[in-house]
UniProtKB/TrEMBL annotation:
Spans traversing the lipid bilayer: none
Gene3D superfamilies, alphabetized: 6-pyruvoyl tetrahydropterin synthase/QueD
Catalytic reactions on record: 7,8-dihydroneopterin 3'-triphosphate + H2O = 6-carboxy-5,6,7,8-tetrahydropterin + triphosphate + acetaldehyde + 2 H(+)
Matching Pfam families: PTPS
Keyword ATP-binding assigned: no
Catalytic EC class: lyase
Name of the protein described by the UniProt record: 6-carboxy-5,6,7,8-tetrahydropterin synthase
Catalytic activity, EC: 4.1.2.50
Amino acid sequence: MRIRKLFKFENAHIVRNCSSERCKHSIHGHSYQIELILEATRLDHGQMVYDFGLLKSSIKDIIDSFDHAICFWNKDDPEYVAACKKFSARWISLPVSPSAEQFSRVIFFWAQEILRQTQMQNGEADVSVYSVIAHETATGYAQCFADDVANAQMGKLVLEDFEFSEQVRAEWTDSELYAKLIRGESFTNPTVTMQVQTEQVQPNV
């Protein structure tokens, strides 16, 4: 079964090497809508794939990093990168181009890593990211699947290769969020008191 959670943010970028003259030479922005689609083969004690409320913590914080921020490819002109850092309090340095395609890959990658390091407390099982859709405009979006994240031809994604501005980190619920992710520390979901006793059927082996 699959569930979908919608996130929104405003972001600015330049997409170097693209075909559009305006996009590759001028800073511009978009109102992004991100569809995060999770899946699992069984339900938790609340009979959910994953409680939507849990997505309002670390995963929401990391996606919200993009809001009112400028994103740049860390291979871009050093003078441009320095200007982004100097004149914007909120910025993200990416190891890939800040295109809609890469936004969908990056958000998939981050969300999946957070889920992998999350200690579940309510009977959740094999919850994973199925897909991420990044709507850049009303008429265009990019959709990412697990194979795309692992595809080195699309750019290797490594946790250590991302950098967030001090202001972005300060606005997270936990300013150490990404550092903990890099260190492999656990994110623990809240404990749940059972109000109705349930019996989970074990999958066939």
